[in-house]
Specification:
The complex is a heterodimer of chains A (118) and B (112). By secondary structure, chain A is mostly beta strands. Helices cover 0% and strands 50% of the residues of chain A. Chain A contains no helices and eleven strands. In chain A, β5 and β6 form a beta hairpin. The relative contact order of chain A is 0.33. Chain B is mainly beta and 112 residues long. Chain B has no helices and twelve strands. In chain B, β5 and β6 form a beta hairpin. The radius of gyration of chain B is 13 Å and the shape is globular. Chains A and B meet through β5, β9 and β10 of A and β5 and β6 of B.
């Protein structure tokens, strides 16, 4: 089945630095990937839709200059948290769908990245 | 727009007892419905889905959910839970198949 790999699984960074999170589709090509943020005891909040070869589409209230998304290839999307602050600490998850398997298989989610900003 | 409500944020249940996790949705169009499970510090795994056809869908590990259009519900049930079922469960809805709307999740704790 479709596999989405997310790296790193856990990262601690200093306030003011930038962190890059990678999301790879391992055995399929994904023209679209999604980035979610999950707060403790809260549901997943869609941050943005990453489109291969074009600009990402951000949800309302998400700072596009702070959360930079790059989808340079059909198998890789990256989320860069720029000038991170403690309030950016969260669990970030990406997802993608293998277009050839269709919607029947739903979306595959990465294993998530726990970001802690100190 | 779609929205999902999971009324129970936490559900403790004894091992081998039955459990039901509630999910209600609102939508003005036809939707696809999903249940995802999340273990600690992991991503979401698809548990089961309703796309069309039979309103009762089952997963390989004993869970089932029934789509009830008149009540706009998609409750998740299991007749006998195991310790390994302890996890966070998310109900989700999608109309186009592109964007998902998740409920706030239900934390299922199975007590030995």
């Amino acid at each position: 089945g479709a596999v989405v790999s997310q790296h790193p699984s856990r990262v601690i960074c200093k306030s003011g630095t930038s962190v890059k999170i990678e999301c790879r589709s391992l055995d399929f090509q994904a023209t679209t990937m999604f980035w979610y943020r999950q707060f403790p005891k809260k549901s997943l909040m869609l941050m943005a839709t990453s489109n291969e070869g074009s600009k990402a589409t951000y949800e309302q209230g998400v700072e596009k200059d702070k959360f930079l998304i790059n989808h340079a290839s059909l198998t890789l999307s990256t989320l860069t948290v720029t000038s991170a602050h403690p309030e950016d600490s969260s669990f970030y998850i990406c997802s993608a769908r293998d277009p050839w398997t269709g919607f029947d298989y739903g979306y595959t989610f990465g294993s998530g990245t726990r970001l802690t900003v100190v | 727009a779609q929205s999902v409500t999971q009324l129970d944020s936490q559900v403790p249940v004894f091992e081998e007892a039955p459990v039901e996790l509630r999910c209600n949705y609102s939508s003005s169009v036809s939707v696809y419905l999903f249940w995802y499970v999340q273990y600690p510090n992991q991503g979401l795994q698809l548990l089961l889905k309703y796309l069309s056809g039979s309103t009762l869908v089952e997963s390989i590990n004993g869970f089932e959910a029934e789509f009830n259009k008149s009540q706009t519900s998609f409750h998740l049930r299991k007749p006998s839970v195991h310790i390994s079922d302890t996890a966070e469960y998310f109900c989700a809805v999608s109309d186009t198949g592109n964007q998902f709307y998740f409920g706030t999740g239900t934390s299922l704790t199975v007590i030995p």
